[in-house]
Amino acid sequence: MVTPPFRKEPAIAPPLLIVVGLAREAAIAAPYGRVAIGAAGLARVLAEGAPAGIVSFGLCGALAPGLKVGDVMVAEAVVCGNDRWATDAAWTARLRVALPGAVSGAMTAGDVIVGTPAAKAALARATGAVAVDMESHAVAMAAQAAGAPFAVVRVVSDDAGRVLPKSAQAGFKADGEPDIVAVIAALARRPWEAPALIRVGMEAEAAFRALAVAARLLAAGG
């Protein structure tokens, strides 16, 4: 039996583990399960025992040209290099029912930010994925090792044609908290990026709102 999508009082123990990359994502997910930030946080939680299920949850970047900011993706697989992990089919099907209009397809993931349209297009060709994040590969590997089902729910925060400014890429610490000092320093070196940085912030805010809506829908459907 697999834990239903985001349930405040899981029917089976140990509870659902939600893996995110950012503190803002963690705040959105916190009411619905135990939250781990990044691969390091995931490893710490797994050291205490295998969860009933693991979900990679948060924002992602679009690789497919048709995806737009705020679109929800429920991945059918995670691709990283030569490896491919299928998400739990039954759980993924329930997630899609709870999230009408969600996009399906493969998610790719890695440790490097993909910040240009050319890099996104190359990654899409190489992997066949429609979106990219930085946590789902760690979730897939951890779930396989723990013998636990996993799923991926992500919301697009930048489309395939966007360039992510260098100053934005300096924006977060390892614990997922914003690194304002690093952003200001990067912007001081690249002041022409200010308009693009503002746009990134606005699009990220829209994506976070969509993520919060998705979390509520999942809770209601669970």
Structure, briefly:
With 222 residues, this protein is α/β, with parallel strands linked by helices.
Describe the structure in your own words:
- With 222 residues, the protein is of the alpha/beta class.
- The protein has a single domain, classed as Nucleoside phosphorylase domain (Rossmann fold).
- It contains 8 helices and 9 strands.
- The chain has helices at residues 23-29, 38-46, 89-98, 117-127, 136-146, 166-169, 180-189, 194-221; strands spanning 17-20, 34-37, 54-62, 72-74, 77-80, 83-86, 106-109, 131-133, 150-158.
- Strands 1, 2, 3, 4, 5, 6, 7, 8 and 9 form a 9-stranded mixed beta sheet that branches.
- A hairpin with a 2-residue loop joins strand 5 and strand 6 (83-86).
- Helix 1 (23-29) runs parallel beside helix 8 (194-221), helix 2 runs parallel beside helix 5 and helix 3 crosses helix 8 (194-221).
- The two termini are 14 Å apart.
- The model is unreliable at 8-14 (pLDDT under 50).
Share of residues in strands? 15-25%
The major sheet is characterized as: 9 strands, mixed
**Structural class label:** alpha/beta
Q: What is the rounded distance between the termini?
A: 14 Å
Described by the principal axes of the CA atoms, the overall outline is: globular
CATH architecture: 3-Layer(aba) Sandwich
The rounded Rg comes to: 17 Å
Please specify the SSE layout and strand pairing:
Layout: E1 17-20, H1 23-29, E2 34-37, H2 38-46, E3 54-62, E4 72-74, E5 77-80, E6 83-86, H3 89-98, E7 106-109, H4 117-127, E8 131-133, H5 136-146, E9 150-158, H6 166-169, H7 180-189, H8 194-221
Parallel strand pairs: 1-2, 1-3, 3-9, 5-7, 7-8
Antiparallel strand pairs: 3-8, 4-9, 5-6
